[in-house]
Automatic annotation (TrEMBL):
Protein name stated in the entry: ABC transporter ATP-binding protein
Pfam family name, one: ABC_tran
Subcellular location: Cell membrane
CDD domains in the record: ABC_DR_subfamily_A
Coiled coil: none
Highest taxon listed in the record's lineage: Bacteria
Residues in ABC transporter domain copies: 4-229
Taxonomic lineage from the root: Bacteria, Bacillati, Actinomycetota, Actinomycetes, Kitasatosporales
Transmembrane segments: none
Sample GO molecular function, one term: ATP binding
Bilayer disposition of the protein: Peripheral membrane protein
Keywords: Antibiotic resistance, ATP-binding, Nucleotide-binding, Transport
Length: 316
């Protein structure tokens, strides 16, 4: 039996529907990602899973329980780290960990958890004095302190530096290795690609796609990107007409073609027939970023120009 079953979930604020028929299931032990642009309805969806919001329609089950009517039971099973959570300013880290432990029937020993999250040196610090990264790590600890079967993490690594982010990913992998299911809301494609077994892309309140990260990338309209500087001019129209080509861009004499493996073969044949040399030839798989932009219908070129991956591909 899946640990999370969401079917036809709908939620409106006033007359504005922000979750519009979302369905997905998560198997026990999975790391399941919810990815989507700002305001897509991700937080509202996971808050309904956690029983913090009442759906207008549809059903939610957590380990077969209804989070609304079986609230106490679900609270014992599900740990939640909320985006933008707050604690009382004067509460110390230690007090927060002890307080949260007391909510649960089978709390974990919070000390190793605090150690693992780099909080041991801050146990006496008051919440208000913690840095953004320290607060974030405390919320992760509080989500895990009840030994949950399922942990819901919303914007897990927002506010962490790259090192803190990597450490947190390693922690999440350990958590999963211990059998805990993870429902993860994220903005970071790299995070989804690194951690998630499956991802639901939510756009404007609906599931735009659901697959493994690799499946989403290979299902993108243009899973391969080829870029090169031709030794002699090549017409963009000619490249656009090649099999599988989705788009062609030119910048400072450098051409970038989004397409498929078939497009790559066709570009190389075309250049060979003409005796044109492809200088600094680069062929790259599209990333989850590209798949996400395809799925959420934004212009690929605008976004790609601003991603680090674009620079690596020599597009900048
Ligand atoms: N309590 C509320 N009352 C009214 N509108 C709300 C409320 N909570 C969220 N919204 C609106 O509903 C929409 C979906 O919000 P939600 O937080 O679920 O999206 P999200 O995908 O998590 O976004 P983000 O990535 O920006 O956190 C947004 O437009 C948001 O402004």
């Amino acid at each position: 039996m899946p640990i999370i079953e969401v079917d036809g979930l709908r939620k409106a604020y006033g007359n504005r529907t922000v979750v519009d028929g979302v369905s997905f299931t998560v198997g026990e032990g999975e790391i399941f990602g919810i990815l989507g642009p700002n305001g897509a309805g991700k937080t509202t969806t996971v808050e309904c899973v956690a029983g913090l919001r009442v759906p207008d329609a549809g059903t939610v089950r957590v380990a077969g329980l209804d989070p609304r009517t079986d609230r106490d039971e679900v609270r014992q099973i599900l740990g939640m780290q909320l985006q933008e959570s707050e604690l009382q300013a004067k509460l110390t880290v230690r007090e927060a960990l002890e307080l949260y432990s007391a909510f649960y029937r089978r709390p974990a020993d919070w000390r190793p958890l605090a150690e693992r999250l780099g909080l041991t040196a801050h146990l006496r610090s008051r919440f208000a004095s913690l840095s953004g990264g320290q607060k974030q790590r405390l919320f992760i600890a509080l989500a895990l302190v009840g030994s949950p079967r399922l942990v819901v993490l919303d914007e897990l690594t927002t506010g962490l530096d790259p090192r803190g982010r990597r450490d947190t990913w390693a922690l999440i992998e350990e958590v999963r290795a211990s059998g805990v299911t993870v429902l993860l809301v994220t903005h970071f494609m790299e995070e989804a690609q690194h951690l998630c077994d499956r991802v639901a892309v939510i756009d404007a309140g609906r599931v735009a796609a659901m697959d493994t990260p690799a499946g989403l990338v290979s299902g993108a309209a243009s899973p391969t990107v080829i870029s090169f500087t031709p030794s002699e001019p090549v017409g963009r129209g000619e490249l656009e007409a090649l099999p599988g080509a989705v788009s062609v861009r030119e910048r400072d004499g450098r051409l970038t073609v989004d397409g498929t493996d078939e497009t790559v073969d066709a570009v190389i044949s075309l250049l060979a027939r003409r005796g044109i040399t492809a200088r600094r030839l680069r062929i790259a798989d599209a990333t989850l970023d590209d798949a996400f932009l395809d799925l959420t219908g934004r212009t690929r070129s605008r976004a790609r120009a601003s991603t680090p991956a674009a620079a690596e591909r020599g597009e900048g």
